[in-house]
Write a structure and sequence with these properties.
Glucosyl/glucuronosyl transferase, about 40% helix, signal, UDP-glycosyltransferase activity, about 290 residues, glycosyltransferase, transferase, 10 helices
Length: about 290
């Protein structure tokens, strides 16, 4: 009968249009406001589209969508961040060397404070005690690996890395990607898209340092905190990351590295606006004559 057929067709259409809602956790624990800004819209849009999103960070929104929740770590700054004026006093030819120095001297202490914050925060521990299960976890991967270690040690969900600057050397081997000194984006270089032979050699040596001695140097602070706070943990950051990390979302600054190609596991989101586009405001120009 026509009425029954319509009901059956309507029911089938409802089933075909059914969308699953995922429980998503995002760990952006470093207090770097500009880095979180790049992914804020992504988490908002996931919540607006029906997914349950929980963000562990230091910058909770005042009026988030209903499905977006925050765990406030309440850490206001990095402790020794530099102002932009500093970059105006350093020759651009040596800025990459200054960045190398900053990462070597600051990252170990920054990692230790970041891990302590994650494992001792009252709000984070309250959230952890609730025992929520997540389908996927986003983890910031720029300055350090405390957020990654936290996700590896305490959750089973697959992990997606996010970087709001450029990939650091540790990221490439985790995805099984060979690092190409002539083509891949490299934060600790000023070579742009066409490096000289000297710059290629310099990049290869710096990359080797950061993926060997540097990685051990940075990770020992993370293990020290986790061994003290979670004595029975079996954390192996590199081994577990290779198994659990599936891809990386990168919001890359081409002003740092030049325009360079990315591997298939890396999804460039720069320039993609998932929010509702806004019209360009009108600008009135006044011509001045001398």
């Amino acid at each position: 009968m026509p009425g029954s057929a319509c009901k059956i067709a309507f029911t089938v259409l409802l089933l075909l249009n059914h969308a699953f809602s995922f429980n998503i956790l995002a760990i952006v624990s470093m207090p770097l406001g500009s880095h979180y800004m790049a992914f804020r819209t992504l988490f908002h849009e996931l919540a607006i589209r029906g997914h349950n999103v929980t963000v562990i960070n230091n910058f909770p929104d005042k009026n988030p969508p209903p499905n977006l929740k925050f765990v406030n770590l309440q850490r206001e700054n990095m402790g020794s961040s530099q102002t932009l004026e500093l970059y105006e006093t350093i020759d651009a030819s040596y800025m990459h060397l200054f960045n190398i120095y900053r990462h070597i001297t600051f990252t170990p202490g920054g990692n230790k404070v970041d891990c302590e914050t994650l494992l001792t925060s009252k709000d984070a521990n309250t959230h952890l005690a609730q025992g929520r299960a997540y389908d996927v976890i986003f983890v910031e991967q720029f300055m350090g690996d405390c957020g990654l270690a936290y996700a590896l040690a305490l959750y089973d969900a697959p992990i997606i890395g996010i970087s709001s600057h450029v990939l650091l050397p540790f990221s490439y081997p985790r995805f099984g990607i060979p690092f190409d000194v002539a083509a891949d984006a490299f934060y600790f270089s000023n070579s742009g898209p066409n490096p000289s032979l000297f710059q290629k050699v310099e990049t290869a040596l710096v990359n080797l340092f950061f993926t060997t001695i540097g990685q051990w140097y940075f990770h020992r602070c993370i293990y020290e905190v986790f061994d003290r706070k979670m004595p029975n943990n079996t954390l192996d950051i590199e081994k577990d990351a290779k198994t659990r990390m599936k891809m990386m979302f990168s919001y890359q600054h081409f002003s740092v590295t030049g325009a360079r190609p990315l591997s298939p596991q890396l999804l460039e989101i720069a320039g993609i606006h998932v929010g509702v586009p806004k019209p360009v405001p009108e600008v009135s120009l006044q011509l001045c004559t001398l």
